[in-house]
Design goal:
Two copies of one chain form a homodimer.
Chain A lengths: L2 E8 L1 H4 L7 H9 L4 E9 L3 H14 L2 E5 L10 H8 L4 E3 L1 H10 L5 H7 L1 E3 L3 E3 L8 E4 L2 E4 L3 H11 L9 E7 L3 H14 L4 E6 L8 E7 L2 H14 L5 E4 L1
Parallel strand pairs in A: 1-2, 1-3, 3-8
Antiparallel strand pairs in A: 4-5, 6-7, 7-8, 9-11, 9-12, 10-11
Helix pairs in contact in A: 3-4, 8-9
């Protein structure tokens, strides 16, 4: 199963037609080749209750929730408060983030720095970038700023963590009816319960009768399962292996 | 109270990053000057249950629901069935629409014409256009095709029916960081709670750093709020006003 994602775009400026959302199209294009299936996009006004409700629903429906917008220092930046409420967490000052802002934003008012250092309790800072601004991770919710240039730099910096492990695959082509070796397949599944094992008869194929597919994200596990299967199958029925 | 709208964008091709949705930005830009407040956009996969659920929720939450996409003749065009299910209606052949398709699509297969003439029971055809294709109206739900060029022609043809009192707008361009005047914005919002006040940083703009937008349907209220804000902001940071 592919991992799923829901995108929450936050900002009155998009709903009122002042700004065209460039971040959700970017995410759709980027997440697909990483193996993540975007299942929903929603664009919401700057309203705590509405955002909280959607964050809560998305966080339980999808593997990842990515929010964009509403994380600046002004009155209409309500994402942090909303995510916290949606996930049932308190808003707290993050000591590391506070120190970071102290270092980079020394000249700005303390109230602004405090707002920018406020996060839902239990937030992890994701900062693989050269930028002084982190992505916030709260459980399976990733909080990004809305400014597209900044958004892209931050997403690009952390995107590899969304990459799904590719499946490793082995094929075995067999010249025998399924019924003659079905018990061997069951034995392999008993020994290797995490293996994905498929058996596909191809009635009109002159070269073999059944194609077996063995799949796992763990290549060593796959190899052991493959050897186990070959040890069970009569040698003369195996036509080919890939 | 402004009329509200929810936009339902339908199509796997958008979620998988193959196509960028151009219709919801167009609707946001067009509905705003008509005085309609877009409250929500959602992008959904081609799945009947998911679409039905959202259409039902939007139809009771907002004054207008506009759907775009999923109305063609192929297997993945499930909007009609979904809207019908969401609103608890049967799908029926619309006699007028059937006659229209008979006249314009005589050469196409009858099965295709029948699918295209199928609508939720009680559908009204909106056809102020020169086009042979109507917008479908089912209660407060307006069903549009997804193809942007066609979508725009159809929307433009019926858009006057959505017109409300317009919003009045003032812009103030500021040459200072948001953090230095965030407290003034809060003061304005306290004094003018019905004002819609937006603050939009533009990091790469040499002329100003932040664009403030003030909006209201009451022009006198807007002017008072505008004066209040200008009295609070240091005069030397205001670059321009529109």
């Amino acid at each position: 199963m592919a991992k799923t994602a829901g995108i929450v775009v936050i900002g009155n400026e998009i709903l009122s037609g002042k700004v065209v959302d460039a971040n959700s199209p970017y995410l759709c294009q980027e997440l697909r080749p990483l193996g993540v299936d975007v299942r929903r996009i929603v664009v919401l006004p700057d309203e705590v209750e509405v955002i909280a409700e959607h964050v809560a629903a998305f966080a339980s429906a999808f593997d990842y929730v990515l929010t964009t917008g509403g994380v600046g220092p002004t009155h209409d930046d309500v994402t942090i408060e909303s995510v916290a409420r949606g996930l049932g967490r308190q808003v707290v000052i993050h000591p590391e983030l506070s120190a970071l802002l102290q270092a980079h934003w020394a000249e700005r008012p303390a109230a602004v720095r405090d707002k920018m250092a406020s996060v839902p309790e239990g937030t992890q800072l994701l900062m693989e970038a050269s930028l002084p601004i982190p992505v916030l991770r709260i459980g399976n919710v990733y909080v990004f700023p809305g400014i597209p240039k900044l958004f892209r730099r931050l997403f690009d910096d952390i995107k590899e963590r969304f990459r799904e492990l590719p499946y490793h695959t082995r094929h075995v082509y067999v010249r025998a009816r399924e019924s003659t070796f079905a018990h061997h397949l069951e034995a392999v599944m008993t020994a290797f319960p995490d293996l994905m094992l498929g058996s596909y008869p191809e009635v009109d194929n002159p070269a073999y009768r059944v194609k077996l597919t063995l799949e796992s994200k763990d290549p060593a596990y796959l190899e052991r399962a493959h050897e186990h299967l070959l040890a069970l199958l009569p040698a003369d029925v195996v036509v080919d292996m890939v």
